[in-house]
Design a protein that fits this description.
Layout lengths: L1 H13 L4 H14 L3 H13 L4 H9 L8 H16 L4 H8 L4 H24 L15
Helix pairs in contact: 1-7, 2-3, 2-5, 2-7, 5-6, 5-7
Length: 140
């Protein structure tokens, strides 16, 4: 567990992806994995990182929701592709390359992978919400 936390801390605190964009990735994969604990924790963190209430609600719809910037669509699409295919398509990768360097692109993959694993662990272990957090996806 300690070794995993080293990687997790890198993704959360030392990633080259800006905080708002990282939280967009984390919330989308948390939603796709139906990870209630992950979602509740990162709604709070995402808002502290610059996500609006409207954006948090649109994360549930994903890249097809109206109102996203091209960059946000690409991040959400990359998350969806990693979740479904374990790979970012060439088209999405090329689109992201307009905004991110190679290190950042790798950190995008690491963020989605890390929080897929976190979601799996939290869901499997039945981790309950901390006091004061809203309970379900519907209440966000």
């Amino acid at each position: 567990m300690r070794r995993w936390l080293v990687f997790g801390n890198h993704v959360l605190f030392k990633s080259t992806v800006p905080a708002r964009e990282r939280e967009l990735l984390i919330l989308r994969i948390g939603w796709l994995c139906e990870a209630e604990y992950e979602w509740a924790q990162h709604v709070r963190i995402g808002k502290q990182s610059g996500l609006t209430d409207d954006e948090v609600h649109r994360i549930k719809v994903g890249p097809t929701a109206k109102g996203w910037s091209e960059r946000d669509v690409l991040l959400l699409r990359a998350t969806d592709e990693l979740h479904k295919h374990a790979c970012i398509s060439d088209a999405t990768w090329q689109g992201l390359s307009k905004y991110y360097n190679v290190q950042q692109l790798i950190d995008i993959v690491f963020a989605v992978g890390q929080y897929t694993l976190v979601s799996m662990a939290l869901n499997t272990l039945g981790v309950q919400l901390d006091p004061g957090l809203t309970t379900t996806f519907e209440n966000t």
